[in-house]
Write a structure and sequence with these properties.
The radius of gyration is 12 Å and the shape is globular. The longest helix is centred in the middle third of the chain and has 10 residues. It is mainly α. It has one domain. About 40% of the residues lie in helices and about 0% in strands. The structure holds iron/sulfur cluster (SF4). The site of iron/sulfur cluster (SF4) has 16 residues, from helix 2 and helix 3. Its cofactor is [4Fe-4S] cluster.
Amino acid sequence: MPMNTTTEPALAWQEAALCAQAGPEFFFPAPGSSTREAKRLCGACEGRQACLEYALANDERFGVWGGLSEKERLKLRRESG
Ligand code: SF4
């Protein structure tokens, strides 16, 4: 989840980031707790695809990005080679 906003065009999607208005505990839940609420927010976020691509490109290991948990992103990376 993006913590700050920027005016760089490549990161413009962060300005639409719904999680910028939500607390970080949403996106970095305690181990074993549910990521359902964070994913629900991602589902309504305009920047979701860009967010996910950013997380994959930057090897973000922790928290929910683009609607996927770190485990789900790992799985996606493995599957996509
Ligand atoms: S997709 Fe989710 S994690 Fe990414 S910017 Fe939107 S709300 Fe935040």
